[in-house]
Amino acid sequence: MENVVYVPGLLEERVRLAQNKPKRTRTRLMLLAATAAELEQSGYEALTINNIVARAGLARGTFYLYFPNRAEAAIAVRRSFMALLRKTRPRGGAKLSAWQAIHRMNQFYVSFYARNARLLAGNGALFHERPELLLNRDQVNHRWAGILLRDMVRREGINRLTPEEEKRRLLSLRLVIIMADEALRNAFIDPPPYLSQVITSHEDLADVLTTLWYRCLYGKDPDPAEKTA
């Protein structure tokens, strides 16, 4: 998928475009861009404030005017990542068949994670240090599951689900989201050698993920016509 956002590069571009912005805005953008670059290069465990300010060309004391510690700077980068993920993911899937909508979304996520894999590599250490981020991720995934459930109900022409049916479908969606997240992590962030041997291309990975999504949600393979409709 073309034109997928490269988050560290976009943060650098924002610094270049902020020349006429107030100094405080420019400085914060510089620190964000430098933190993203350091995270990509060395990961969270090796992230230091000294390296951030050296890359940004700022004094160490300046860092503390914006962030109390390295974790808060890394969290700010993660917020930028998540905001860009939401902003740039495909829209208008209601006009597509279920398989096409799922496939397009998987193409996007595969490309986005592949493009930003090194930036994401330190998430495990950051989450261990700041466990509240796990709750935030859980909330984000639950909202996403709710959006997907509403789309499923609309496509099936169902007026209302019983509370039991809704819980069961939400559980199915949450588990498939976990499966997809783990698949992307293994494919791009921490790839096992034998798994890497069987991933032939990003498109192949997106296609297999889509088939798994479809089977889990609809209990069958898609009709061939649905892939081209």
Automatic annotation (TrEMBL):
Residues of the DNA-binding region: 48-67
GO molecular function, one term: transcription cis-regulatory region binding
Keywords associated with the record: DNA-binding, Transcription, Transcription regulation
The organism's place on the tree of life at top rank: Bacteria
InterPro entries in the record: Homeodomain-like_sf (IPR009057), HTH-type_TetR-like_transc_reg (IPR050109), HTH_TetR (IPR001647)
UniProt-listed Pfam families: TetR_N
Stated name of the protein: Uncharacterized protein
Annotated source species: Pseudosulfitobacter pseudonitzschiae
